[in-house]
Amino acid sequence: MAPARFGQSELGAVATMAWRATARAFRMNATTSIGAIALLIIVLSALLAPWIAPYDPLEQNILESLQPSSALHWLGTDYYGRDTLSRILYGARLSLLIGLLSILLAVVVGTLIGLVSGYFGGKLDIVIMQVMDVILAFPSLILGLILVAMLGASVTNLILAIAFTAIPAFARIARAPTIALREREFVQAGRALGYSDSRIMFRHLLPNIVPDVLVMASLWMATAVRVEASLAFIGLSVAPPTPTWGGMVREGFENILDSYALALFPSLAVLILVLALNLIGDGLRDAIDPNLRTES
Amino acid sequence: MTAFILKRIGFAVITLFAVLTLVFFIVRVLPGDPASVVLGDQASAASIEAMRQKLGLDQPMVFQYLDFLGGVVRGDWGVSMATGRPVVAEVLNVLPYTIELTVAALILGLAFGVPMGIWAAVNRNRIPDYLTRIVSLLGLSAPAFVSAVILLLLFAIQFRWFPVISSGQDTSLGGKLRDLALPAVNLGLIMAAYITRVTRSAMLEVLSQDYVRTARAKGVPNNVVVWRHAFRNSLIPVVTVVGLYLGILIGNSVLTEIVFNRPGLGKLIVGALGQRDYTMLQGMMVIYTFIVVVVNLLTDLVYGLVDPRVQYR
After folding, report:
1. B contacts of A234 (beta carbons < 8 Å)
2. Does B132 share its domain with B226?
3. Is residue B106 located within the same domain as residue B130?
4. Which one of A29, A268, A296, B62 counts the least CB within 10 Å of its CB?
5. Based on the domain organization, do B52 and B138 belong to the same domain?
6. Does B254 sit within 8 Å of A234, measured CB to CB?
7. Which of B76, B99, B133 is at the close of a domain?
8. Confidence band of A292 (pLDDT split at 50, 70, 90)
9. Residue in A closest to B290 by C-alpha
10. Which of B22, B142, B258 shows the shortest C-beta gap to A234?
11. What's the pLDDT tens digit per position in A105-122?
12. B95/B208 same-domain check
């Protein structure tokens, strides 16, 4: 992989690498495109929810409690007579927001930790990676659950807790190529020219790490969405009546004998979003390492 | 081999110690004074102070830490704030249910995942490969509560083959199996999805090795090549990954236990969360840490058994 061209801004180089990998992924694989289309639809419905949702997601109508699918309510209504379709459309916002921001935070912090740890090496590296392994050893759902329970359930805390569980993965994925590249000629040339460590790290090493991090990010965003939904299902998410997919499944599950639709449709929504993100992640990985081809 | 085992055990003890320290500080550092949380908003300053003393929160942090570590070693994990019973007793009470579920899921996962992975690898880039790829991706995308709800809708409500809410009272073998079936299938399918992917990639790697080509060239039947030459060597990554995915299995067992209303660690921890039972939560984290570290240790050791080269490292 070519090092970033001199004079290009960090951001520009990072964006170029990211763009190339993504473009390759879509040229190669039909399933990646299916994932991307599904994700696009979900993102659009989340953004356009106020305009396309047939009802107010919070509007209760006890006369229409637990209705099956009909022309009026395509996906039926819940116990309070709220329209399930509208709630799913609005619920997508929270899933996407928390998934995206938590992984963004984990990417920034984790990559920074991995880059520094790998670049400087030595004792610092050993200690940092030991801490990361310890966090990674813990089941992410359990760790997230305890953190959210203690911090209190709010959007910010959910993002922080999920990001915390994902940071070690990004530290590791950023560290490996950093160590491999550290001794390469272009880095040594930079040192000989008297570049500062931070300039070498951010301008010359970082762009080469981006593809790996990108794959990891889309796969971990799938995990983040899954963990958020799971926490909401357990009851650790934004307080009702705000619609969350996990919370809707929970409510549907409590009324499962009266109406199957209530538990089924939000379940499918979670499944489709996570699947779409995983398909994209798989495709990106194939694009970056053609030898691997959807290997785990 | 002995040196290898000792080294691994030493490493496990260090990890355990590190995680216990992390657990201690997570519980202490996070906002919210346990004493005032237990007593509620209306509690007087005096009763909060009394509760802090009872919980040992008035002691310096160092003493609390040593006390905590000593307690963990002695098997004294404190008393549940909610039930007043020892945390260890509560945990041991439900642990067999979770182990039962996890082992059953693991067996199912291996029984389906390994053959499917081999089938996919042997038929690379043909229909069986695409089929297993889609199915396994679906399996690892489904959060455990989603698949559990779908299984429940299908087999308990639509077909009525299994009870919707298992009583847990039926202690006969048949009754126990009936209660275990759907939760185990739920967890097992997720496990199978992961195992399929790993087995496939491990098999693909081994099948491209020179010695496999040599075996084929000298006329060894395909069956023998796949099972004797390739499969045994692909076991190593499979074993490691099964160990690595234990965390996913544990997380998913929490959700599975909730949906199927099964007693176990998952229901215990969620109950403790609802009641703000800090000692119980701390104890749960300790037990989860134990499980993760012990399984990682076992994984390392099995790794050594499956791959004779490991002991020379």
Report:
1. 254-255, 258, 270, 273
2. yes
3. yes
4. B62
5. no
6. yes
7. B76
8. very low
9. A138
10. B258
11. 999 999 999 999 988 888
12. yes
Tell me the CB-side half-sphere exposure of residue A124, using CA atoms within 13 A.
Answer: 10
* pLDDT tens digit sequence for A180-198: 888 888 888 888 888 888 8
Report, as an integer, the average pLDDT of B58-71.
Answer: 80
Number of domains in chain B: 2
Specify whether B105 is located in the same domain as B254. yes
| CA proximity to A282, closest of A269, A271, A270, A295 | A295
Backbone angles phi, psi at A270, to 5 degrees: -60, -45
A43 touches chain B (CB under 8 A): no
CATH at B162: 1.10.3720.10
- Cα of A12 to nearest chain B Cα, Å: 33
Of the three residues B76, B104, B136, the one that is the final residue of a domain is B76
Does residue B122 share a domain with residue B68?
no
Establish if B120 belongs to a structural domain: yes
Does A294 have pLDDT greater than 50?
no
Report the half-sphere exposure of A103 (CA within 13 A, side-chain side).
Answer: 23
Q: Which of B140, B201, B293 sits opposite A295 (nearest CB)?
A: B201
If pLDDT is split at 50, 70 and 90, which confidence band does A4 have?
very low
Task: Return the residue matching tokens 């790993």.
Answer: B198
Give the C-alpha separation, B155 to B159, whole Å: 5
The pTM assigned to this predicted structure is: 0.83
Q: Is residue B18 part of a domain?
A: no
Q: State the smallest CA–CA distance between residue B278 and chain A in angstroms.
A: 9
Scanning A266-285 for CB atoms below 8 A from B yields 267-268, 270-271, 274-275, 278-279, 282
Is residue B22 in a domain?
no
Chain A residues inside the 8 Å CB shell of B288: 138-139, 142
Which of B34, B50, B29 is CA-nearest to residue B272? B34
Q: Domain range for residue B226? A: 91-310
Alpha-carbon distance of B13 to B115, in angstroms, equals: 36
